[in-house]
Amino acid sequence: MKYRVVNKNAPVQLSLFSDQIINEFTRHGARQAPNGDQVNFILNLTSMDQPEAGIRKSQAEFIVSVALLNGGNRNLRSACYTTLIRTLSNILVCIDPAGNGADPEAYITTPETGFYHFPFDSGKVYECLLPIIKSRLVINNLLSSNLPQECWKTTPVVEKIKEAGRRLNSLGVLPAPFPLHKVLDRKSLDHLYRLFRMRGLSYGNFSAREKVPSLDENTFWMTARGVDKANLKGIGEDILLVTGYDATDRYILVSVPPRHNQRARVSVDAIEHALIYQEFSGVGAIVHVHAWIEDVVSTKQNYPCGTIDLGKQVVELLKQTPDPDRCAVGLINHGLTITGPDLNDIFDRVQDRLVKNVPMSDAVCTP
């Protein structure tokens, strides 16, 4: 495993902790690479007062930012999440040197709004970071203008997806898209779009199966990334038809009408949904929300959204349940993936059981 260290605006005191993290990776065989080399991850040492964005050469490079906690932060969770976004990171390690009055504390923040902490220990930090930097994104879209004409305007399933957005919004578990333009400059926004085709961050998504025989047996409609899911417009704009995926070249295959939004891309969770539909023929719809249900079986690692690693882990969890076709599984420090024969069935089953606050746990990184 190769990595590169970037040090901009980082206070000198940070080296007391970053050196320990670097030594831990070295102990496990990782090595620093010259600037021109492709790396697995970038260790971005920065400041919460003046956070510097990490710049990737490709999607495959993950960014781990490390910063010292500013004692003036009143809302630590919000401050950490804003720093995570401003540094364009996959994960932020924010360190409080004083901790709870004595021992240093590490606060971990992820784009999926994960936020948990534990006494600083370089081995535990390593265990937290490893699944993320070793995971494999499958989020690129290969768009084909081959959608059958009868699907250009709408279909009954598409109308149910629009209704699902309104219904989720009424339950209070569908936050509005995160306003990236308020925390990122134009250069960072362009970099983010160039690599990930993201116009914004939004939380929660849903899909529903609809067979289009001329394309594939496992086609499904899904919400697009970074859109207001409470006010969905329609096909080719913020609802797209997924026809499959190419695991080798890491593409999600999407069918669109001739006239479509050129910037539209399906949700990064499409690979997870595709794997579920492929494995379980009885699943007709999937809902993902940043909410919780008590006593659900849950993943053990917080793999990033859009990774095939997360999708495979969810599929394995579903196989362990009595009825994978009608089930809710937890994504640790993240939310829920809920399956059902259709969207109405899912809502009828879970709407009175959803807990808005996802419980946070550091069990994802127990050495």
Task: Please give the structural blueprint.
Blueprint: E1 2-7, H1 15-27, E2 31-32, E3 41-45, E4 62-68, H2 76-86, E5 91-96, E6 105-109, E7 115-119, H3 122-134, E8 140-144, H4 156-170, H5 186-196, E9 205-209, E10 220-223, E11 239-246, E12 251-255, H6 270-279, E13 285-289, H7 308-319, E14 328-331, E15 335-340, H8 343-350
Parallel strand pairs: 1-2, 1-3, 3-4, 4-5, 8-12
Antiparallel strand pairs: 5-6, 6-7, 9-10, 9-13, 10-11, 11-12, 13-15, 14-15
Descriptive account of the structure:
With 367 residues, this protein is an alpha/beta fold. Helix 2 (76-86) links the parallel strand 4 and strand 5 (91-96). Helix 6 (270-279) packs parallel to helix 7. It has 2 domains: 2-134, Rossmann fold, CATH 3.40.50; 140-360, 3-Layer(aba) Sandwich (L-fuculose-1-phosphate Aldolase). The chain has helices at 15-27, 76-86, 122-134, 156-170, 186-196, 270-279, 308-319, 343-350; strands spanning 2-7, 31-32, 41-45, 62-68, 91-96, 105-109, 115-119, 140-144, 205-209, 220-223, 239-246, 251-255, 285-289, 328-331, 335-340. It has an 8-stranded mixed β-sheet, sandwiched between helices. It has a 7-stranded mixed β-sheet with strand order 2-1-3-4-5-6-7, sandwiched between helices.
The outline comes out as: globular
Largest sheet: 8 strands, mixed
Question: Which structural category fits the helices and strands?
Answer: alpha/beta
List low-confidence stretches: none
Span of the ends, CA to CA: 19 Å
- Strands of the biggest beta sheet: in what spatial order? 8-12-11-10-9-13-15-14
How much strand content do the residues show?
15-25%
Q: What is the CATH top level name of the largest domain?
A: Alpha Beta
CATH topology call of the largest domain = L-fuculose-1-phosphate Aldolase
Tell me the count of domains.
2
SSE ordering: EHEEEHEEEHEHHEEEEHEHEEH
Tally of DSSP helical segments: 8
Kindly report the name of the CATH homologous superfamily of the largest domain: Class II aldolase/adducin N-terminal domain
DSSP, total strands: 15
Overall mean confidence score, pLDDT = 89
Helix content: 25-40%
Rg (C-alpha, Å): 21 Å
Architecture per CATH nomenclature, i.e. the level-2 architecture of the largest domain: 3-Layer(aba) Sandwich
